[in-house]
Amino acid sequence: MNLPAAASWRHQESRTGLEVAFFQGYEGGLRISGATTAVEDGKSWFVEYSIAVDAAWRTRRAEISGRSASGTRRTVLESGGDGRWCVDGVPDPRLDGCFDVDLESSSMTNTLPVHRLDLASGAAAEAPAAYVRAGDLAVERLEQRYQRIGDLDFAYTAPVFAFSCVLRYDENLLVVDYPGIAVRVS
Q1: Which string of b and e fits 56-92 if b means at least 16 CB within 10 Å?
Q2: Does residue 85 register a pLDDT over 90?
Q3: How many domains does the chain have?
Q4: Does residue 21 belong to any structural domain of this protein?
Q5: Could you tell me the residue range of the domain that residue 115 belongs to?
């Protein structure tokens, strides 16, 4: 897994803030540790995460802690890599078929399915994810779709939010431009 030691994104348009992530090899896969903080709709929040992915880029564990005006929270998601999940130690069948974690607070997590899917140019795939909200760390299923439309460009849709855009990535397939959400600064 050829990634830089660290990367940073500046939130834009929908919120104001910054995300920083650090990448290191871990048990044949990768551990990604990071934090993101923002003000969105007049509300401040802070989210810290540690995500472990296996060699096939399937998320195996995500430890997330956060703080907002509503309090401090922590949640742990675990998967055997088979698309079944436990949230805080309890099986959650709503997440069956998900192989990725997607943090509402993070642009970096859009890197995970792109690596895992390894789509050829023009190919598309559904990539439902275990979605973790920024303010309260609530976990839900997020239906999403990626289509590779160029060497480093992917058409992305999340129907529940009526959202679609073209995500631009760098040569390491880390998000560079997430229109309306964030832009890479390092």
Answers
A1: ebbbbbbebbbbbeeeebebebbbeeeeebebeeeeb
A2: yes
A3: 1
A4: yes
A5: 6-184
